[in-house]
Amino acid sequence: MKYVRHARCVRCGAIYEAVPALTTCRCGGILDIEYDYEAIRADFSPADLDGCRDYSMWRYRPFLPVEDGSPPTPLRVGWSPLYRADRLARTLGLRTLYLKDDGQNPTSSLKDRASAMAVVKAREAGADTIACSSTGNAASSLAGNAAAAGFHTYIFVPARAPKGKVAQLMIFGAAVITVDGSYEDTFALSKEAIDRWGWYNRNAAINPYLSEGKKTVTLEIMEQLHWQVPDYIALSVGDGCTIAGAWKGLKDLCAAGFIDRLPRLISVQAEGCCPLNRAIQTGEPWRPMEENTLADSIAVGVPRNADKALAAIRESRGLAVTVSDEEILDAMRLLGRTQGIFGEPAGVTGTAGIKKALELGLIDPDSTVVSVVTGNGLKDVQSGIRAAGEPMLVPPDMDALLSAFAQRRIAP
Ligand SMILES: *Cc1c(COP(=O)(O)O)cnc(C)c1O
Ligand SMILES: [Zn+2]
Question: Superkingdom, according to UniProt (predicted)?
Fold first, then answer.
């Protein structure tokens, strides 16, 4: 870890050596990994990436807290496509929109970036078992990435996790404990079990390395945009680790001289569960909320990474936009119909927020905006059907087909 200096508590400033099994500060604050940016700047530049054939998150090793000798994870994580989304941009009335489709990761969500990091750090820590609690994607990505690397996993999920995600866990051979309670209860039980059995902890808000994995999403976006900084990057927000990681990646690039300014973040949450956005909008400390949204991956009433997420949104002079479940379903249809991308509800919430921000006049239509699609819609087929409806059903008969078409005003 040539470029890692140490970890620093975001709350009290205490400094810790960056050992592999690092968790939170004694004061309860979350740690942040700090690098020697002068050294990175001296040794490494955008031109070094031009010839790099490693099309995965590990192409950014100088920016990552892993030992030089640590092998990369077996599954290809990262380097998801960044599409220029002109058809959707036109529909929304926005000049330039890009979509980063992180549903194309090996287990179909952005969480693979954090889980791949967890696997590397668990190996460095000498562990053979990794555990986490999750609303679904952190779990399924851990189970998949860990299985490929030969680790055991214990996964605690709340009872409401969609079937697609639970199926992933079972297929990847995880020991799955479905907790009959909220995400909060699930998290608490996982913590107790981890302490008791000494497993490696893949809870993103506890383990400071995981947002370092997540930050590769913005490292990639910037490389894919040839280091031209957009005006906004929109992300859906639950615990807050993703948006905090995205911001860390941008700040790292700035500190190392790869980019010369920073975009503004758009934090998008569901109306039925938006404790972080409410804190931004009111200027008051965040308070717990109920978890009333179909976007299960961001239904987090007690966000575990509030400190880092709120700091990121504020530092970027970011926007906090809340959207209804109807607006999320609408964004699912829009992304599918204009761009051929099927996102899960939390996966498209960022895009729903861009639409809302334009409608409210919060962003200039001439802006350049990047929306991260954080998870694939096949994980939650029920919500897809809810967004788009059921197909027509006809007997095997041409007259019946004609009348079904007439009824729906379809003219082939
Ligand atoms: C986890 C997740 C998020 C939000 O990430 P946080 O770190 O919890 O804020 C958004 N979308 C999807 C699909 C996720 O799985
Ligand atoms: Zn502290």
Answer: Bacteria
